[in-house]
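User: Can you predict the 3D structure for this chain?
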Amino acid sequence: MTAERADVVIVGSGPNGLAAAVILARAGLSVTVLEGQPTVGGGVRTLPLVTDRVAGSAGLVRDVCAAVPAAAPTSPFFAAFDLAARGVELIVPDVSYAQPLDRGRAGVAYRALDRTVERLGTDGLRWRRLLGPLTAYAPEVASIALSDKRSLPSGDPLRLGRAALAMGASTSLMARAWGDGYWSTEEARSLIGGVSAHTISALPSLAAAGTASYLGALAHTRQGWPLVRGGIGAISRVLEADLVAHGGRVLTDHPVRSPKDLPPARVHVLDMHARGAAELLAEPYRSRLQVPLGGGACKLDYVLSGPVPWTDPEVRRAGTVHVGGTLAEMRAAEAEVASGRHAERPVVLVSDPAQHDDTRLGPRGLRPVWAYAHVPTGSGQDVRPAVERQLERFAPGFRDLVVDCVVTPAARLADHNAAYPGGDIAGGLISMWRMVARPGPAIDPYAVAPGVYLCSQSAPPGPGVHGMAGLHAARRVLRREFGMTQIPSLAPGK
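Assistant: Here is the predicted structure, written as structure tokens:
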């Protein structure tokens, strides 16, 4: 690095770090982003998929961490940034998510609410009653979910109030086991369980139910749960390009593990797990960031010779598949993980992007399949055998299609993204209290020390590809450190 002192140094180039960087650079500040990996993007990167049996010449790519940016279309940051105008194409499957069950059955959440209702039969009207109001006010639901949890989100107060009531009703129902009686079919119950399990925590819980309300609302909108043509890394590339166009710079291969790795600046903004950020601070600030770790994930990058042969053909149309069986089975599996044990039948999230994006196909029909299994935090275990038993259960013949697989145990995820210590991909434990008091109880959750701000998933609004923690932190940096009261325009060409 040169001796030049930047106005702002940002540590970490995940979507939140890049969002903050873009805003601050557009405000006329000198901004430097430090990234420990050779490539930009943190949890939003797409890299070549090379294995012992598949060469780089096959042209396959893998989404290293996140793959389905469900929160991006309704994120106020990305709405202002306008991904489409920058050439990022979001592909929206007709089926947002699905949950295969035994004997060829499946719960299927179509983007079209009416179609979901029709398929659920006796539970259709109940589904409409619960999810319909959330879907009708999906933009307001997103504004509430992606807020800083300290101020009222912007929008029509009447619509926001109705969205809040709908979220409260659905969350209270799904947060308690007595809510199971609302449903008469396992298909409906499993759909709720699968979307709740994104928290990687014991089920049921208020946090999991709130997550289900938010993601369930998005699933039935026009934007659905999209994939990104060519891989999710396209989002990071356009963010980096905008930053550079406005005078900022990104330095890769520059890990920051201690204060000596941090160059001087007027302000430091940390897109890091709270525990990693704590290592850069002195007391009393350090101890305030020792947050409990969330559940872990074991990542599996498969190369298959054909599409996943789900028993129910409608599951093959889903952008995201939750594999875990019945709601009772998922609860048992998540309870095992929360207790520090590996589940015999783990909850697994699966995406087969080539079903929707022909650019992801390689020679002779080779395709990447993205998956991760829920495991105890810090697990070094290769859970591929357990995962494949689950997949073979609902997609007989899956093993026959496997060409190769790259397994990254939870304990090694931080090798690819330092923000995932022990495989905690959510920035800390997910609970209703921790979603509000993130990273800890404070009036301002972003200002963590004098001149130091946190903008990662460890700050509100929490996990997801939305850039909103970066926006919330950048707004405070502009106002408090530089006396600027307005966020600059994020529109292309401005």
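The first helix runs from residue 15 to 26. The two ends are 29 Å apart (CA to CA).
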